[in-house]
Write a structure and sequence with these properties.
The protein is built from three helices and no strands. By secondary structure, it is mostly helical. The chain has a domain at 15-57. α1 (15-26) packs across α2 (30-42). The chain starts with 14 loop residues before the first helix and ends in a 16-residue tail after the last helix.
Length: 67
């Protein structure tokens, strides 16, 4: 019998930490880092938003159809 491989989920670092890392990498302020992360969330595909519903918390992200 074949057994399923269990994949351990990795906890996300969080918005502020991700923004700080993006700002440091780009050499810009934390404010711009937050803008970069938010812009990425706004560009997320509907499939990505379905997979990660927390993206809807960012203002400007399309919520999709209600079913």
């Amino acid at each position: 019998m074949a057994t399923k491989k269990v994949v351990k989920k990795v906890k996300h670092v969080g918005f502020e930490r991700a923004a700080a890392q993006a700002a440091k990498k780009a050499g810009v302020s934390k404010e711009r880092g937050r803008a970069m992360i938010a812009a990425g969330a706004r560009k997320a595909s509907p499939a990505a938003v379905k997979k990660n519903p927390r993206l809807k918390r960012v203002s400007g992200v399309k919520k999709g159809k209600k079913s």
